[in-house]
Amino acid sequence: MEHRTLGRSALVVSRLCLGTLTMGPLQANLTLAEGARVIRTALEEGINFIETADLYETYDYIREGLVGWTKPVVIASRSYDYTYEGMRTRVQKALHQLNRDYIDLFMLHEQESRLTLKGHAPALEYLRVAKEKGLVRAIGVSTHVVEVVEACAEHPLIDVVQPIINVAGLGIRGGTLADMLAAIHKAKKAGCGVYAMKPLGGGNLLKRFNQAWEFILNVDCLDAISVGMKTPAEVKANARIVNGEPVPDDITAIIAADKKQLSIADWCQGCGRCASRCRQGALFLKDGKMHVRHERCLLCGYCASVCPEFCIKVV
Ligand code: SF4
Ligand code: SF4
Asked: Measuring CA to CA, which residue among 230, 274, 278 is closest to residue 24?
């Protein structure tokens, strides 16, 4: 598999990054052994870039999958914390649960605007200190918003930016697909490492699987492409695609048929917390129960993390 340097971070990563949201409790909820097997398959396929987040609760899978693996691995994690102490706690948790001395890339999760980026200055200051101490090797930001990618290009502390980008422009906010592509080029030109999130629209573009891949692989200024995966078969298929090798039709058919949907159980109390958490405006209340606008839902499962009744699942 091709490896590229992630901008000024100097981290050398495989073009395909294994996203772990899909295997964790917000989605497939794999057993520890199943999750570790997915991680290990990725490593054996030449993928050395693994992405997680504080929210995902997937550190255990990664730690187990790495047992006995001696080649270099780049791990990226993220947190929503905006305070110095809060971010310190999140980094310490990641180090502890992953059983590592450092995290390669630690990012501010899902930044919404230039203003929220400014509001996270104390958390960024902690990451700067952690980088000086060698606890974190690079600092990044993930976002769905065009102006945040532009702001990262100008920010002295940001080494890496991870924007949402896909053939349909699903989930992009504050501009069009063309605007996001222009912002990505700007960040790349400024020296940021840039890697994509949700190139398959969180599963929504599986019907356009080949077209979605063709599009994203042709955005050459992307150093890497992160795809959430939950089975060894998916890992092998996606690795073949990134390597430019044919994927057997039967495997493509299995992946394309894997239709996921957000499901909300009958016992929903209508409290509205999930709707406040969803940045896509995909949830709405009707007759005291929450409902989904499936055409807007990116199947991220973030709303499930705030439901006190455990009503929401990506199935
Ligand atoms: S957070 Fe849970 S209980 Fe509250 S409205 Fe959403 S689905 Fe219903
Ligand atoms: S409804 Fe839930 S799963 Fe869908 S985009 Fe919103 S937060 Fe993500």
From this structure: 230
| Residue limits of CATH 3.20.20.100 in the chain | 3-256
Where, residue-wise, is CATH 3.30.70.20 in the chain? Answer: 262-314
Q: Which of 297, 314, 315 to mutate to test the pocket of ligand 2 (most atoms within 8 A of CB)?
A: 297
Q: Whose CA is nearest to atom 2 of ligand 2?
A: 303
26 lines ligand 2 (CB under 6 A): no
Q: pTM of the prediction?
A: 0.90
Residue 46 token pair: 């030449």
pLDDT over 80 (residue 252): no
Average pLDDT score over residue span 102-129: 96
107 CB near ligand 2 (under 6 Å): no
Domain 262-314: give its CATH code: 3.30.70.20
Which run of H or of E encompasses 225? strand 224-228
87 closest CA partner among 111, 123, 128: 123
Helices (H), 155-221: 177-189, 209-217
Q: Which CATH architecture has domain 3-256?
A: Alpha-Beta Barrel (3.20)
Tallying the residues shown for the chain, one arrives at 315
Token digits of residue 176: 């069009």
Find out whether 206 and 259 touch, Cβ atoms under 8 Å.
yes
Mutate to test the pocket of ligand 1, among 26, 264, 290 (most ligand atoms within 8 A of CB): 290
The whole-number pLDDT of residue 314 equals: 81
- Whether the pLDDT of residue 124 is over 80: the answer is yes
The whole-angstrom separation of Cα 220 and Cα 254 is 28
DSSP 180: H
Q: Provide the 3-class DSSP secondary structure of residue 9.
A: helix
